Amino acid sequence: MSAANQKKSKGRVLVAMSGGVDSSVAAALLVEQGYEVIGATMQVWDYSSCDITEGSGTCCSSLDVDDARSVADKLNIPFYVLNCEAKFKTSVIDPFIKAYLNAQTPLPCVNCNTYLKFDHLIKKMKELDCDYLSTGHYAQIVVDEKGRSQIKTSTDDWKDQTYFLFTIDPEIVPKLLFPIGHLKKPQVREIAEAQGLVVAKKKDSTGICFVGSKGYDQFIKENVSAAELATKKGLIKRFPSGEVMANHEGIHLYTIGQGKGLGMTYHEKLFVIQIDGSDNTVWVGEEKYLLKNEVDIIETRWLSEIEDGAEYNVKIRYQHQGSPAQIFKTDRGFKLKFKEAQRAVTPGQAAVLYKNQQLVGGGWITLN
Fold first, then answer.
1. Would you tell me which CATH number, out of the four given (3.40.50.2000, 2.60.120.200, 3.40.50.2300, 2.40.30.10), belongs to the domain 289-366?
2. In what order do the strands lie in the sheet with 244-248?
């Protein structure tokens, strides 16, 4: 059998290439391992319409597309650019804005994974007659004793991205490849250097890719009418007494746990405890009121069966270390009861469950 045929024998794989070092190394490793690799970049945002510096912590801008194409040329693999701007707006940007205006703190990376990377690209994978879809996520695919493919946390605890993957359809997990999940970030850059990839020293994408350094508040101001924003003004009140402390310019300017930029001065440190979207009240109070033992979640997605009353390790935000909690079915969804009280439980974020490093699933945090 020829070398070319040996390479094809592992199957054809579509690699989502953002133009960053992680997805570039993912593609390089798959070529090295003998897969027939096809690269694809999603053009999701018109960076000419904003002040974000392309290629500097961005994702999928025109310069990022050029970097991805350069890597594809270096690896001698086919490369496609997919215009996803319309779908990105309806599936990611619009819900992002709506969440802030409804007193929530959104998590746009999950929607991007749900509706673009692991939906739109899965369809493209099938169109191109590929056997697998690969990304540069820091996650791992493992096969359990029953032969079922499961998602497991990355070797790199700091970079692990499984928190953003809880909405993945379990049926597509066997079709996913995460080539860098067993590596730490410095190792990934070393591989990029060794392979001579132009992205070896490129900055990581940081923050929300379509917002940039201007901040989400300015982004919302530019994308929502002044008349609508005016309807989001209200009062800042002391929790739990109800004492009026000040006026505020919009609930979208606040998030649970916030302790700076409250628009008022006071003789003791205060934090945002709760945001009431029904009357635009921002409740502030002592830090002790941020602690909660119970969390309600809705719109849950499970990659494997859960047991009512069982204990799981639960993350309530991306950089949360996780904490043990029991899960119970409710009329609306599920309730999580933590062994230790958790700080700043935030509606709009996700609670994601793990069992022995395996991603079990999760749901969206909501108010009681």
1. 2.40.30.10
2. 244-248, 234-238, 281-285, 271-276
